[in-house]
From TrEMBL:
Origin: domain of life: Eukaryota
Keywords from the named record: Disulfide bond, Membrane, Transmembrane, Transmembrane helix
Family matches, as InterPro entries: CD80_C2-set, FN3_sf, Ig-like_dom, Ig-like_dom_sf, Ig-like_fold, Ig_sub, Ig_sub2
Protein name: Ig-like domain-containing protein
PROSITE patterns: IG_LIKE
Domain Ig-like: 39-172, 180-275, 282-375, 380-470, 482-558
GO CC terms: membrane
Source organism per UniProt: Euphydryas editha
Subcellular location: Membrane
Keyword set includes Transmembrane: yes
Pfam family membership, one: Ig_3
Keyword hit for Ribosomal protein: no
Residues spanning the membrane: 684-707
Alphabetized Gene3D superfamilies for the sequence: Immunoglobulins
Length: 847
């Protein structure tokens, strides 16, 4: 056996191939443990395989198929399990069938399994290989596999007792493909993928991958769903898959579209991911609170909300076909956009449509809108026009006129009123004013119907007036001066201007002036007068007496000739006539107010003058001139004094007759008391003086009274003097001042109006002091009979008399006005000269 081993180990190269092969190959299993080193054994095996002496054995060796990935780890299996439990692997040999070069050995002969002897060919696996004997099955691990590692490997396992076992390993090294790329099929552009797609469009994408051994498959996935596995292997080594994905929608937003290239399960596939970004149309748009009623010319905020658009929708407002720009504010959140419109509806917006329109400008045909049919309440709109068959320029007196008022309102107008100028027109059929539903009829109009007409409509929103329509009723001229003939005064050779003003519609086309000289009527030539509008001015100069007379003026227009001419009586100028109906009213404690009516001015401009004279001195207290009306107001008069008021008018020719008014006042008792009394005596002395004075006065009064009583009874009553206005002690006896520049008014005879009447009862009553004022007492006693005065004492009667001021007018009448003034008898006696009487004769009582 040792000999055979020696031959096998030492003499094999010297033997001829058949003998060496036979001896070595057949005897190798038996002598493997007899001292042959692994290289020798491998050499023997190599020789046997070279000469095909092991062909039968080769055909029955099982083959395992193993794949590895370039750059990754690979495991080549080798079954090292013995057939019996008392046996075990002594050595494991690895070599590659392509060149039968030994690659790796695992030797535990004479060693423990924990300390094997390892060997790896430096030109083969080198340090990349490691045998893991404890694995089941045992594996040869390879790091960083490369394409050169591809081939058929043989694993030979020598056991201690069992025959040698061989295992073939077909090791395939797989080269993974590169990472795929995705492009737009139409543009072949990589950057197009960064832009979002529009909803509803069709995706056309190309996925390409280069490399890979074996050639990889190229598959499209949507999320985890395979959607296309129809790839193409091109000759240039590129694998292509064209994807057509129709009508992407909202459900595909942010979905993952994956192109996957794979040629083995040993490594993860190469993928390219595309997340779908999609421009979405807005889903909904709604105007909030559409069921409300709007009022015209009021501001409202209208809200519109849209959802579903990506990116945010553009919201626009339209009123009918008119866009509302710069009146809305938009607010956006994750999935919705809210627009708030500040809207002021107008009357014409009623039944119009307010539209909220949402649109994604990046998506075609993405516009959606919501419409609101507006219900706008507004103040009525009234339009007034004259009847269609009427010509406003040819309406004359006697025609019938009607107006039509067209009213537009929401809600419906509940009241319609008609106005002429600013005055409301009431229905009055008897006067020819007829109001119907929306029309006004004026029957047989006259010139007073001219004016601006309007209608006013009212509803719950308010009232509104229509446009004014002017009605001009045409009529023949009429004099626009007082109906009575005007009296004008002029001097000879004095140029005067006569103004003829007429009222007509249309304006006069012609004026005609005539003069009537005592029945001789002649036309005044047009060269003497001018015409302007509705007035004509005549410049006329009377040269002699016959040039004074009646001048008339008539005008003519398209309607007709003036029926009644304007009349002017031209007279020679003179003094004005006296004032009429003068009335005196006291105001307060120190004022008077006098009103008169002016008379004829004498044909010349006149002024009005009031003179206030204090009695008894007749000193002028006031001189007031009025250039317009005979109305005067005098302030600052002393109520304790009496006054004469002279009133007259004056022009360039002179002054009128005087109108004289009188006021009588009695000094009040408190006027004579106080610290200013110059006779400031002690109370006792004053009392004595007063008693003595009183006694003296009583005695004197009795003597005088008795004397007068007997004197009056002896003489017959004489008629009062026609030239006397006061008693012997009246203002006529006072020193007169220089007369004024104007002529004094004539004396007035009051004796015929006021006679002295004394009752027998009064003569018999010694307590009454009768003072003869004609009808003076009768006038005072118009409310109280004379008998009441007969029952009073002297002092009381005097109070009654002197408390009533007297007004003497131009015609001589006397009136009394109660002034509420009282006086003591002493004061009355002291100022008897202030008593106004209608007669010089005074009758006093006899005691």
């Amino acid at each position: 056996m040792k000999y055979a081993s020696m031959i096998a180990c030492n003499t094999t190269p010297q033997l001829s191939p058949p003998i060496a092969t036979r001896v070595s190959c057949e005897g190798l299993p038996r002598f493997i443990s007899d001292g042959c080193s692994p290289p020798d054994i491998l050499m023997i095996i190599q020789i046997c395989l070279r000469f095909k002496l092991f062909s039968f054995f080769v055909h029955i060796v099982p083959t395992a198929h193993v794949a590895g990935v370039v750059g990754k780890k690979a495991a080549l299996p080798c079954d090292t399990q013995p057939l019996s439990s008392d046996d075990g692997a002594a050595m494991v040999l690895w070599f590659k069938e392509a060149d039968w070069e030994p690659l790796y050995s695992y030797d535990i002969r004479g060693r423990t399994p924990n300390q094997p002897k390892l060997w790896s060919s430096p030109t083969g696996f080198g340090s990349r290989a490691y045998f893991r004997a404890t694995a089941v099955p045992a594996i040869l691990l390879l790091d960083n596999v490369s394409t050169a590692d591809t081939g058929i490997y043989r694993c030979r396992v020598d056991f201690r007792n069992s025959p040698t076992r061989n295992l073939r390993v077909n090791f395939t090294v797989i080269t993974p493909p590169n990472r795929p790329i995705i492009m737009d099929a139409r543009t072949r552009d990589y950057t197009r993928l960064l832009e979002p797609y529009d909803e509803g469009t069709t995706l056309e994408l190309v996925c390409e991958v280069r490399g890979g051994d074996p050639r990889p498959s190229l598959i499209w996935y949507l999320e985890n769903t395979l959607i296309d596995d129809s790839f193409e292997l091109r000759e240039d080594g590129v694998t292509v898959n064209n994807l057509t994905f129709p009508s992407i929608g909202r459900q595909h937003l942010n979905s993952r579209l994956i192109c996957q290239a794979s040629n083995t399960n040993l490594a993860p596939p190469q993928t390219k991911l595309l997340i779908l970004d999609i421009n979405l149309r807005p889903l909904t748009v709604q105007i909030m609170n559409k069921n409300r009623v709007l009022s015209a010319d009021r501001s409202y905020e209208v809200e519109c909300k849209t959802t579903g658009s990506r990116p945010e929708a553009q919201v626009n407002w339209w009123k009918g076909f008119k866009p509302l720009r710069k009146k809305a504010k938009n607010f956006s959140d994750t999935n919705s956009t809210t627009s708030i419109l500040t809207f002021v509806p107008e009357a014409e917006d009623h039944d119009n449509q307010l539209i909220c329109r949402a649109e994604n400008s990046r998506v075609a045909n993405s516009v959606i809108e919501d419409t609101w049919q507006l219900n706008v309440h507004y103040v009525p709109i009234a339009t007034l026009k004259m009847g269609s068959n009427l010509n406003p320029n040819h309406i004359k007196e006697g025609d019938d006129v009607y107006f039509e008022c067209n009213v537009q309102s929401n809600p419906k107008a509940n009241r319609l009123a008609w106005y002429k100028d600013s005055q409301e027109i009431q229905h009055n059929a008897s006067s020819g004013i007829i109001l119907s539903d929306q029309s006004l009829v004026l029957q047989s109009v006259n010139r007073t119907a001219s004016g601006d007409y309007s209608c006013l409509a009212h509803n719950s929103e308010g009232s509104a007036s229509s446009n004014p329509v002017s009605l001009q009723v045409r009529y023949a001229p009429s004099c626009n001066l007082p109906e009575d003939a005007q009296v004008l005064g002029a001097l000879k050779k004095e140029l005067i201007e006569l103004l003829c003003a007429v009222d007509s519609n249309p304006e006069p086309s012609n004026f005609e002036w005539t003069i009537n000289r005592s029945g001789d009527i002649s036309e005044i030539p047009p060269s003497l007068y001018t015409v302007k509008g509705q007035t004509s001015v005549l410049s006329y100069t009377p040269l002699e007496d016959r040039d004074f007379g009646t001048i008339t003026c008539s005008a003519t227009n398209s309607v007709g000739k003036q029926e009644t001419p304007c009349v002017y009586n031209l007279v020679a100028a003179g003094r004005p006539t006296s004032l009429q109906n003068c009335t005196l009213i006291e105001q307060g404690t120190d004022g008077l107010h006098v009103d008169c009516i002016e008379g004829f001015d004498g044909g010349l401009p006149q002024v009005f003058i009031l003179e206030v004279l204090e009695l008894p001195s007749k000193s002028v207290q006031a001189n007031i001139t009025s250039n317009f009306t005979p109305s005067f107001e005098v302030l600052g008069l002393d109520r304790a004094m009496s006054y004469v008021l002279n009133l007259y008018a004056a022009n360039a020719k002179g002054r009128s007759e005087l109108v004289t008014l009188y006021t009588i006042a009695v000094r009040s008792p408190d006027k004579y008391t106080g610290a200013n009394n110059p006779f400031n005596l002690s109370p006792m002395i004053a009392s004595l003086v007063a008693i003595l004075a009183l006694l003296s006065a009583v005695v004197c009064a009795i003597i005088i009274a008795v004397y007068r009583c007997h004197f009056i009874r002896r003489h017959v009553k004489q008629p009062p003097s026609t030239n006397a206005l006061y008693t012997d002690d009246s203002v006529e006896s006072f020193a007169k001042k220089d007369p004024p520049t104007y002529t004094a008014s004539p004396k007035i005879d009051y004796s015929s109006q006021y006679e002295l009447k004394m009752d027998s009862e009064m003569d018999d009553d010694p307590d009454i002091i009768p003072v003869q004022f004609g009808e003076f007492y009768n006038f005072i006693a118009d409310k109280k009979p004379i008998d009441e005065y007969s029952k009073l004492g002297n002092e009381d009667v005097n109070k009654k008399v002197y408390s009533e001021p007297i007004i003497v007018t131009k015609n001589g009448s006397i009136s009394f006005v109660n002034r509420g003034v009282t006086a003591r008898s002493v004061d009355i006696s002291a100022s008897r000269h202030e008593v106004v009487t209608a007669s010089r004769r005074v009758r006093e009582s006899c005691i």
